[in-house]
Amino acid sequence: MKLKCKPNSIDKVMAVIVLASATILMTNTLGCASKGMKGGSVLPTKYHSISVPIFDNATPDRDMGFQLTEALQKRLQQTTPYTVTHDGKADTILRGKVVSVKLSQMSQSVATGLSEEVAYTVTLDWDWVDVRTGKSITSRKGFSSSGVVVTSRSQAEPLDLARFEVTQRLADDIVANLQAEW
Fold it and tell me: CA-CA distance, 94 to 44, in Å (whole number)?
């Protein structure tokens, strides 16, 4: 007789913990790698400052543009040689727009039919511009990332946790893309 194992709430909590731990590890690794490379960074050395105005937001999630901008400014300060400053004083400007925020059910309770895990996916467009020439240094359209929350009653996590996770990931990914192409 074979036993059928279904993931229980402990398995799901462990999965979320592992995912969160991996995110923190990747964030710290990116930060350390970038800090270690400040002298010989793969970022363009002709620039010294960057401005990141609040990202436009075309979604019903009012706080997403502000929270993403704040996370991005902090990540830039922590991991790049650039000074984050106001528009009028910066060599470059990083503009963006949150184009969609989507909740997707990843699993549901067999007993109740309600969502147990939900993915919070944010998609945005951004452009890094040289202020002196007005030319784009690099840009992305349809750039996205997701955060996951457990919504089942016994382990319920607020959507704010997923929003925080996805804004941190997007900030990390954008900074990594600034380093990748120019």
Answer: 14
Which range of residues forms the domain containing residue 86? 9-180
1 part of a folded domain: no
Q: Where are the beta strands (DSSP E) in 4-160?
A: 49-51, 56-57, 83-84, 92-108, 115-130, 136-150
Q: Are residues 172 and 26 in contact, defined by beta-carbon separation less than 8 angstroms?
A: yes
Has residue 3 been placed in a domain? no
**Amino acid letter, 182:** W
Q: What is the pLDDT of residues 86-123, one digit of tens each?
A: 878 899 999 999 999 998 877 776 776 666 777 889 99
CA angle at 138 for the pair 25 and 167, rounded to the nearest 5°: 35
Averaging pLDDT over each range in 12-21, 70-79, 87-96, which range is the top one? Answer: 70-79
